[in-house]
Specification:
Dna Ligase, domain 1, 29% strand, Cell_div_FtsA, 5-stranded mixed β-sheet, alpha+beta, disordered C terminus, binds adenosine-5'-triphosphate, SHS2_FtsA, binds magnesium ion
Length: 421
């Protein structure tokens, strides 16, 4: 009988820290949110922690609030890593099949994986995670389950995700100094994908875009597996900067105008004749909504241009499940229309759909409507962390809470679990 578990997902974002503490009850698919916190963050630039002490203080304050709200002591958290220093590299391992009858055994598979995990890295880089891609038997690619098949040479291709070591260290320092343990570290886009994509979409081919304040995180899936990952160092915060410069106002007012942009749109057509007035009566700010739209769209199009370049890197992929946009930037009112126009793919907003994933329900891969139920897209990464945590614990119940390094090893074993005892 599975036990009850309480897990905390901590999404350390450029503009805000989002945290969720969730109870997964024994024998039930339901999740109970014990605490949900969103607090402004500082000390980060474009998804990277540049001032660990400052971020640590912010994390400590979030943890305090979680403890008060949930009545739980938070001994460990599942945390995200972001920033354009994140890289994905492909590696292959190859072995000669050992049995005389050439039937591929579990040992052969494990030896091939071990060989693939051994490769040299540029200085100051470290591997955080591994993702299996495919097996190749005697040059025949695309094999997912080689156990028992016959062959002379067995190869495996894996993707390794790594980070710039000093930034990775800043993350661990910031969390540990806030007085909690790190139970796992998961890349932001992979975490958001966990919360927003269905297995069906991943099978068909889909792009997950998490538009945050400092970065736009992208993950591409096909045949159920991750095939590409990128972090574009531009996010919705840059739109705020552009508005501040473009209509000559301070950042707080520019942020407000951006979030109220929907009010300047009517059926997606701006009332261009009228000039809007906000600010105090002593110091009124007048701007044309047409200019506002131009400023916002120019930056969004720049982001989509860079997204297009990333998609082209895996040009063989058709992506019938289109683009799923999440993160705070997904709340810009006309983002779906712009994405369709610029990227020429179907597009929808992704909200955390944990109930569907846990209940094993799947949609048809692409639905033009946003999910009817679901959470604020700002909480996608935090939800993904919580879902990954629950999945890990339920698949390794006897292991309790091994440390982060061990979890990475366990994860690749689990993902390839069909092959490894
Ligand atoms: N209604 C809205 N309309 C437009 N933008 C919005 C809206 N609500 C939030 N945002 C923007 O979303 C961004 C915050 O989103 P999010 O919390 O996903 O980013 P983050 O995780 O802090 O950043 P990153 O992932 O880049 O490190 C801010 O730039 C904010 O202005
Ligand atoms: Mg984010």
């Amino acid at each position: 009988m599975p036990k009850s578990h309480i897990v905390t997902g901590l999404d350390i974002g450029t503009s805000a820290i989002k945290a969720l503490t969730v109870l997964k009850k024994k024998g039930s698919q339901d999740l109970e949110v014990l605490s949900k916190v969103l607090k402004p963050n500082s000390g980060m630039r474009r998804g990277v922690i540049v001032k660990p002490e400052e971020v640590s203080r912010n994390i400590a304050s979030v943890l305090d609030q979680i403890r008060t709200e949930s009545g739980q002591k938070i001994d460990g958290v599942y945390v995200n890593i972001g920033g354009s220093h994140i890289f994905l590299t492909s590696s292959r391992g190859s072995v000669v099949v050992s049995r005389a009858d050439q039937s591929i055994s579990r040992e052969d598979i494990e030896r091939a994986i071990q060989a693939a995990k051994t490769f040299s890295l540029p200085p100051n880089r470290e591997i955080i995670d591994f993702f299996p891609k495919q097996f190749i038997i005697d040059k025949e690619p695309g094999i997912k389950e080689p156990l028992g098949m016959r062959g002379v040479r067995l190869e495996v291709e894996i993707l390794a995700m790594g980070a710039f070591s000093p930034y990775f260290k800043n993350l661990t320092t910031a969390v540990l100094s806030a007085g909690t343990q790190i139970l796992d570290i998961i890349c932001s886009s992979i975490s958001s994908a966990k919360a927003c994509l269905t297995p069906q979409q991943k099978e068909l081919g889909v792009v997950l875009l998490d538009i945050g304040a400092g970065t736009t995180d992208l993950a591409i899936y096909e045949e159920g597996a991750l095939i590409h990952l990128a972090v574009i160092p531009i996010g919705s915060g840059h739109i705020t900067n552009d508005i501040a410069i473009g209509i000559r106002t301070d950042m707080a007012t520019a942020e407000r105008i951006k979030k109220e942009f929907v009010h300047y749109l009517k059926g997606n057509i701006l009332k261009t004749k009228k000039k809007e007035k906000i600010g105090s009566s002593l110091n009124p700010l007048t701007f044309s909504p047409k200019l506002l739209r131009k400023i916002i769209e120019a930056r969004v199009c720049e982001i989509f241009d860079l997204v297009q370049k990333e998609i082209k890197k895996v040009s063989s992929v058709l992506l019938p499940a289109g683009i799923v946009i999440t993160g705070g930037g997904a709340k810009l009112p006309n983002i779906v229309e712009l994405a369709k126009k610029e990227l020429k793919l179907p597009c929808r907003i992704g909200t955390p759909i944990f109930h569907q994933i846990l209940a094993g329900k799947e949609d048809s891969g692409f639905s033009p409507e946003p999910a009817e139920e679901g959470e604020d897209p700002v909480f996608s990464t935090a939800w993904g962390l919580v879902l990954s945590a629950i999945e890990q614990i339920e698949q390794e119940p006897e292991k309790g809470f091994p440390d982060f390094r061990k979890r990475v090893i366990n994860r690749i074993k689990r993902t390839l679990g069909v092959f490894i005892p």
